[in-house]
Write a structure and sequence with these properties.
mainly alpha; Multidrug-efflux Transporter Regulator, Chain: A, Domain 2; two-stranded antiparallel ribbon; 4 helices; 63% helix; elongated
Length: 120
């Protein structure tokens, strides 16, 4: 049976463990702002069975990024677009890494296949 923990008993980065007041304190963002960011879809914390927000380490990292953008003078619509593009870029980057790995594997297999045919 697996649990929601990462290494050394720490919660997994995407596991919501912090209530809204703790998340506000850890992020330096007011509770009302956290609610506003959720309303705009900038952050989507998990919910407990009772419906309370539970912020994860990944949510806190995203809140830090939102705070940087707010401090830079970007409005909420701009922040939403920037985060969307950053998320899309991360997805594409991961796919590219997978493709590069597959390409290396296929090139090695092709090279090994040529070598074994030449030896025969």
């Amino acid at each position: 049976m697996t649990d929601q923990r990462g290494d050394f008993g720490a919660p997994a980065p995407d596991h919501g463990v912090y209530g809204i007041s703790v998340a506000a304190e850890l992020s330096g963002i007011a509770v009302q702002s956290l609610r506003l960011y959720e309303r705009y879809g900038l952050v989507t914390p998990a919910r407990s069975d009772g419906g309370t927000r539970r912020y994860s380490a990944a949510d806190l990292a995203r809140l830090r990024r939102i705070s940087e953008l707010v401090d830079a003078g970007v409005n909420l619509a701009g922040i939403a677009r920037i985060l969307e593009l950053e998320d899309h870029n991360a997805t594409l980057s991961a796919a590219n890494t997978d493709l590069l790995s597959t390409n290396r594997t296929l090139r090695k297999a092709a090279k090994d296949g040529r070598s074994s045919r030449q030896d025969a």
